[in-house]
Amino acid sequence: MDYRREIDGLRALAVVPVILFHAGIEVFKGGFVGVDVFFVISGYLITTIILSELEQKNFSIVKFYERRARRILPALFIVMLSCLVVGYFTLMPDEFKNLGQSLVATSLFSNNIFLAITSGYWDLASEFKPLLHTWSLGVEEQYYVFIPFILLFAWKYCKSRIPLILVCVFIGSFIFAVWFMAVSPQWAFYILPARAWEISIGGLASLFLRSNYQNLVSNRASNLLSFIGLLFVVTSIFVIDKTISSLVFYLLIPTIGATLIIVFTRVGSFTHFFLGHRSLVFLGLLSYSLYLWHQSVFAFLRIYSVEKPSIFAFIVSIVAIFVLSYLSWKFIETPFRNRKLINRYKIFYFSIVGNIFFIACGFYLNISYGVPSRVFNSTIRVENIDKRIYNEKVFAYKLDSFSNDRRKKLLIIGDSFARDFTNITLETYNIQNVDIIYRDDIGRCIFPYKNSLSEQLFSKANVIIFSTRDFKNDCIANDIKYAENNKKIIFYVGTKNFGYNLNWLIRFDDIERRNRYNIISDNVLDIEYDMRDKIPPENYISLLSYTLVSNKVPITDDFGHIISSDREHLTMYGAIYFGQNLLNTPYSDIFK
Q: How confident is the model at residue 394 (pLDDT cuts 50, 70, 90)?
């Protein structure tokens, strides 16, 4: 196929806003649509290459995947290796374990599926994931698993139906994306069936350019349509917001814009002049490396920082990203595309060995919990610091009824924050004379009773405790009145959070790590003050009032043990630390 410099310019127009969006520059709030533009470009190029080679009778599945390996893997492997090495020295165990999982998923071109599965309550914040962006490579490579075989079959048996096939893919995928975005936004964002419409529209652009229909459009009309496409793409970058509802419909704007540019840009038009400018073309040549490096560099900038990095820090990082991208383009991408330097055998051997290496490393990081010996001494046990293992052991107390003995009946209700408070209780007090039940499924209010189980447990409990991640003032007054009328004790547990980042603790040894603090966010303080205002002091257990020092929250104890491994939930050492601070509160009287 003939080289079109405006396509490289379009790549630049796609990748630069993505970088600025991820740098947190708010004016580029729609910069993420650059990925959608990339999907359109990929669909156009792949369809054009496959159909051109089929027409010339020199298409080969092996050659197709060889070309994909040359294009995708060398620079990707360098970025993955860099993340692995830098992560060893900068990531706490939980984050290093997550990086290992991402290494495996990225090697198998399934990071999009991995992210869809793991996104949710316990997920690591996306801005701290160095390989988060490889989800889009997963979408594309999964598409490439199917499309060459579909086009090869269609070319052989029903060539005239190829446009209909791509139209069906476009319509079916788009309808599915609209529906699934309402059902499960996280899955709809990541998976191929909800993204295939963007790649297939690029394929349809290729078919249009191969047909005679383009000759029916005058130069003047073509220039206008390509300019409209350019406006669509540029406007999307500044207008579309990822939080808007019906996002799929809005994504039609940049994807249709990219399609108009691809189909109607002709030499001599404004769009060709603009996108064909040598500065944009040069950036377009670097676009793949720019995309690969930007998220990893930004993630490690955040990982290294104690507080949220400044815009200046991101600008300096962007300069570093461009330097790294140029080096990887010139010394990695370009040589590996040269078949005279690296033959087919070498590229496949390199691909297989590289994937095996990263999969093996990833599995090791997963099973070893991120090699905690890098950070902690041998006395630290994984089950006492893992955010899920330690927290979820409380499910052993998820019982349906209290015992019939004379022990006090303590009912703790809520989500993982309630399990944290249960662990505080278990680590701090002698519970020999207390019967404890934890439930996460009987509602956030006493009335109305959610079911017969909730009625039974609330009626028999002597002490009722509510603790949740988010605070809602729906029924506090009624529940407190119920407790007073029935001679029960009721408490509401305050919120907690452990600052912006914990990874900086890795820079200290056990002694230097003692009694470290993070600045607590204003949002968390607002919740704390709101709870103090809405809940009577005799019914409120504040975790922060006993531990905050000048709006800083402790993240390690007197021995250098981490209080939280994920900035929200407690380790065993965190439960002990907070328990010690509650010893002289009214809650302690329950256990006397």
A: very high
